[in-house]
Amino acid sequence: MTERYCLYSESGGDLYRARIFHQPWPLQKATMNFYESTMIEALGVKAFASEPVLQYTEEIDVDIWAIKKVSEARP
To answer: Average pLDDT in the 39-53 region?
Structure first.
């Protein structure tokens, strides 16, 4: 769940994608002091069956390829 190979963005109804590469994220445990959400519940999805798993990483270097419209981009 923490690997990412592309970044996505939307502009004017068009979807854009840029391929990316980075070393594995050095994940560290995190804590949450407060949580409140209405967006998940509004979709009819149960928020969390158990306590959420929280992790973060410090800054890492990322190589990003040119952004392209998804309809123009090759997989």
So the answer is: 71
